[in-house]
Design brief:
38% of the residues lie in helices and 17% in strands. The chain has five helices and seven strands. It has a seven-stranded mixed β-sheet, with helices on one face.
Length: 181
C-alpha cells in the first residue's frame, strides 16, 4: 500500500477535525490560531451616538456607560460556553492586568451570575464582567460572539473584531498611542 501526499493530508485533516470536536483541545487550537485584531480604516470608523447604557457588575461595581465618555474603552461580548471566547479570554485578562487602570474594560455577558462567578474563580479571571440592564448603543450591536470593540477617547470605534489575540505588541502599541492622544 502506497501512502500518497493526499492520504497524509486527509489523515491530518481528520485528526484536526477530531481535535476540534473535543472542547478543551478546541480552545487551545483556537488560541494558537488567534491573530492580532485589525484597525478599522479611518473612513470606516463609526462614532458612538449614544452613551445611554447601564451595566450591572458581576464581579465589580455597576457602571453607567456615559461615565466612560472621553476614555479609551474595550467592550467585549462573550459567554462561558463559547470556545472562541474562552480562547481569547487569557489575552484580554493579560491586557486588563497591564492596562486596567488606564483603559475601561467592559466584558459583557448575558449569562446568569450563578454560572459566571464560578467560571471566573475557576479560571482566575479578574477583568470586570457586566450584564447589560439597558439596550447597548446600536453601534455595538452584534449577532456573534466573541465580538470586541476598541473605542477611542472621542467615541470612534477603532477596532471591531471577532476572536483575536488582544495581548499582542500591535494592540499594546495602539493602546499606548490612543492613551497619549
Amino acid at each position: 500500500m502506497t501512502i500518497t501526499r493526499k492520504k497524509i493530508f486527509d489523515i491530518l485533516f481528520y485528526i484536526l477535525i477530531a481535535l476540534m470536536i473535543i472542547k478543551p483541545t478546541r480552545v487551545y487550537i483556537l488560541r494558537f490560531l488567534s491573530l492580532s485584531p485589525s484597525i478599522e480604516k479611518t473612513e470606516n470608523q463609526i462614532t458612538i451616538s449614544s452613551y445611554n447604557w447601564q451595566l450591572k457588575g458581576i464581579n465589580t461595581n455597576d457602571v453607567d456607560f456615559i461615565s466612560l465618555k472621553g476614555k479609551v474603552v474595550i467592550v467585549n461580548f462573550w459567554a462561558t460556553w463559547c470556545a472562541p471566547c474562552l480562547a481569547e479570554m487569557p489575552s484580554l485578562e493579560s491586557l486588563y492586568k497591564d492596562y486596567g487602570d488606564k483603559v475601561a474594560f467592559l466584558l459583557i455577558t448575558n449569562e446568569n451570575p450563578d454560572v459566571v462567578i464560578p467560571f471566573l474563580k475557576k479560571k482566575g479571571f479578574t477583568a470586570p464582567i457586566y450584564i447589560p440592564t439597558t439596550q447597548n448603543p446600536s453601534e455595538l450591536n452584534t449577532e456573534t460572539i466573541p465580538k470586541t470593540f476598541l473605542i477611542d477617547k472621542s467615541g470612534k470605534i477603532i477596532i471591531e473584531a471577532g476572536r483575536a489575540d488582544w495581548n499582542s505588541k500591535k494592540t499594546r502599541k495602539l493602546l499606548d498611542k490612543l492613551l497619549s492622544e
